[in-house]
Design brief:
Structural class: alpha+beta
CATH class of the largest domain: Mainly Beta
Strand content: 5-15%
Family: Belongs to the GrpE family.
Helix content: 55-70%
Region (Disordered): 1-27
CATH architecture of the largest domain: Roll
Subunit structure: Homodimer.
Oligomer: single chain
Keywords: Chaperone, Coiled coil, Cytoplasm, Stress response
Radius of gyration: 49 Å
Distance between the termini: 147 Å
Coiled coil: 36-77
CATH superfamily of the largest domain: Head domain of nucleotide exchange factor GrpE
Amino acid sequence: MTDRSKQDYADQETVTKEQTEQVTIDEQDIEILNEEKAETIEAEKSDEEIQKLREEQETLQNRLLRVQADYENFKRRSNEEKIKNRKYGAQNLVEDLLPVVDNFQRGLDIQTESDETNGLKAGLDMVFRQLKDALQKEGVKEIDALGKPFDPNSHQAVMKVESDEFESNTVVEVLQSGYTLNDRVIRPAMVKVSS
């Protein structure tokens, strides 16, 4: 090989080495850029994941608060219902017994003349008092209506009458007793009202 061709060959080899080094440098730059890009993408993904996790946490926290509130409301309603059941649980029984009380009252209002019927009446009176005592223990009270101002919440007016004895709109006669159970009107008193 001539010196010139050796020189050309050496120049070509140098160029090839420089190109190879340039390619290697370019590959390293690309690799570094790829790593940086991957880190950036990873950081973005990480930020997105953190944001998603925060949103999930907030959603779960809200659901938890709603469930707790629902539970507290349920507990409160259950307690109120228990109290109401204790207070008014005997209402159906009391409503069924009120006609029996009325019949006892009517039977005791009858005038008797013989000793035999007086004894029977005394026995009925004793049973009647026991029945009324048992009802009072459950919270049943008779509505005191005679001479009181008419109250549509506790009285049922069936007649209006002229009266000089009572003021206007006053109960002058009780036709059928009314009863309350722990301050709840079970049956209003059936009354005559002055006009």
